[in-house]
Amino acid sequence: MPTTVKCPKCGKEVEWKKENRFRPFCSQRCKLIDLGAWANEERSIPGNPAFDDLMSSDIDDHLKH
Prior knowledge:
This protein has about 60 residues and is an alpha+beta fold. It has two helices and two strands.
């Protein structure tokens, strides 16, 4: 029995197999809609708010001390 997952965008059941080039999405359309949400900053990965306004060089200096 093939492994199936739900498309993160529309919820349609999708077979998880090498031939499905859009996995875990069901189609290019759902994949592009999801990508657009990331590009518009509607989605994000939580980080440490203490470092939100720092540049990477500032973080390096902070870690050295």
